[in-house]
Amino acid sequence: QQQVKQSPQSLIVQKGGISIINCAYENTAFDYFPWYQQFPGKGPALLIAIRPDVSEKKEGRFTISFNKSAKQFSLHIMDSQPGDSATYFCAADTGTASKLTFGTGTRLQVTL
Amino acid sequence: GAVVSQHPSRVICKSGTSVKIECRSLDFQATTMFWYRQFPKQSLMLMATSNEGSKATYEQGVEKDKFLINHASLTLSTLTVTSAHPEDSSFYICSARGGKREKTQYFGPGTRLLVL
């Protein structure tokens, strides 16, 4: 019940295209859903986060869509750039446990 | 933005020695710090959670006598890998969070440990 399932495992997108990464969860106690970006040999960096009281949050080229009834959330990267090539992790946190449960990660490659 | 540093960034040691990794929150007070381990091309695995001034809470399967965690101040936590062996070679990452109601975890740059 604590798992967060992430797909796809890897993704290749052309420059200028839209990258979409999906996550699904079971635990309805999760109330905070961040996305992290990680470059090789570096620590994860917070990209954007959402709480379940909103269905969408946008920051620049990055958008989180959240579907509470389906227990799914996704990251959309608009106008994908080669510099976006990295591994992306979704995560979820509960109000009480307050520790992140991470998805398995998606390796994104943006080609020229 | 909140900055978390780690030192050293990489360390190579001989089998049987102990290695200490420092994690510091540079511009905020971290009531809680987390230690993760990450194997190549895998997700982050939480090892333990530490709150300032109290004992760390270890995840199931993590040996507390092997991985000693100290969170002596609101800006510093240390992870000591005792009697390191080659199987302990990994990428260790810390994160820090501000107040107890704060959700966001800020991650350090990670420490690459190689045990020969």
What letter string, H or E per element, gives the SSE order of chain B? EEEEEEEEEEE
Radius of gyration of chain A: 13 Å
The helix/strand order of chain A is EEEEEEEEEEE
Number of strands of chain A: 11
Radius of gyration of chain B: 13 Å
Give the low-confidence spans of chain B: none
Structural class of chain A: mainly beta
Give the amount of beta strand of chain A, in percent: over 45%
Number of helices of chain A: 0
Number of strands of chain B: 11
Give average pLDDT of chain A, whole number: 94
For the termini of chain B, the CA-CA separation is 37 Å
The secondary-structure class of chain B comes to mainly beta
Quaternary organisation of the protein chains:
heterodimer
Structural account:
The complex is a heterodimer of chains A (112) and B (116). In chain A, 0% of the residues lie in helices and 57% in strands. Chain A is built from no helices and eleven strands. In chain A, the strands form two sheets. In chain A, strands 2, 4, 5, 9, 10 and 11 form a six-stranded mixed sheet that branches. Chain A has a five-stranded antiparallel sheet with strand order 1-3-8-7-6, with no helix packed on it. The mean pLDDT of chain A is 94. In chain B, strands 2, 4, 5, 6, 9, 10 and 11 form a seven-stranded mixed sheet that branches. Chain B is an all-beta fold and 116 residues long. Chain B has strands spanning 4-7, 10-13, 19-25, 32-38, 44-51, 57-58, 67-73, 76-81, 90-97, 106-107, 111-115. The A-B interface holds A 32, 34, 36, 41-46, 49, 89, 93, 98-100, 102-105, 107 and B 4, 6, 32, 34, 41-44, 46, 49, 91, 93, 95, 97, 100, 103-110, 112.
